[in-house]
Specification:
Blueprint: E1 4-7, H1 17-28, H2 35-41, H3 47-55, H4 61-75, H5 84-91, E2 97-100, H6 105-114, E3 123-125, H7 138-147, E4 154-158, H8 161-170, E5 173-177, E6 191-193, H9 198-201
Parallel strand pairs: 1-2, 1-4, 2-3, 4-5, 5-6
Helix pairs in contact: 1-3, 1-4, 4-6
Length: about 220
């Protein structure tokens, strides 16, 4: 039986990737950032690192604060993927739910509050809450501890290979969000959810688990 559901945020719960990229572009005076460059930038560890990369000069607290202000504006146009709000509401009272995202805590709070999802979650773990980034299992393990469940009893739903490998490394059940921004068919996930509502069907099922991935 599944005892908890943990979600990735950007590209899984929220269609937010373009808004985040637009906020970075606005602060640095860049034209729209191409998708391939967005994917590369999102591997950098902090907003300051991304701003430094884009601008070619060291970004300090003022530039980071400007990014958060720009993101708050962009967040007004961000929406959860269709069905996400209803699924989170349906999970309430059935199993605890949380988020583990690579985004930092400030950006995560801006986006979850702007889209009305924050109060539907029992815990939120951001990328800067743990020392090691995905696909290391630290953040997912922390989310499960906060929810009071073992990782083996949790689903982790995400759109990227890194999300799914994180689940495997934590011993959780990986669920590929096929509606998501970066979903790649045939990836690590043992279970594939074509739409958010499909996650509800997995609560009483026991998806097969892939072999634990090597930790690096």
């Amino acid at each position: 039986m599944v005892a908890a559901v943990v979600w990735d945020m950007d590209g899984t719960l929220l269609d937010s990737v373009d808004a985040i990229a637009a906020a970075f572009a606005a602060v640095t005076g860049r034209p729209p950032i191409p998708p391939a460059e967005v994917e590369r930038l999102f591997r950098l560890p902090t907003p300051a690192a991304i701003l430094t990369d884009l601008a070619g000069t060291d970004a300090g607290p003022a530039e980071v604060d400007a990014f958060y202000a720009a993101l708050a504006v962009e967040a007004e146009g961000v929406e959860p993927y269709p069905g996400v709000h209803d699924v989170l509401a349906a999970l309430a009272g059935r199993v605890p739910t949380g988020v583990f995202t690579g985004s930092n805590a400030v950006a995560t709070g801006i986006l979850l509050r702007a889209t009305g999802l924050h109060d539907l979650l029992d815990t939120v773990v951001a990328g800067d809450d743990v020392a090691r980034r995905k696909p290391h299992p630290d953040g997912l393990e922390l989310a499960c501890r906060r929810l009071g469940v073992a990782p083996a009893a949790a689903l982790y739903v995400g759109d990227t290979d890194s999300d799914l490998t994180t689940a495997v490394n934590a011993g959780a059940v990986p669920v590929a969000a096929a509606w998501g921004h970066n979903h790649r068919p045939g990836a690590v996930g043992a279970a594939v959810a074509a739409r958010p509502a499909d996650v509800l069907a997995l609560l009483d099922a026991g998806p097969d688990r892939p072999t634990r991935a090597a930790r690096s």
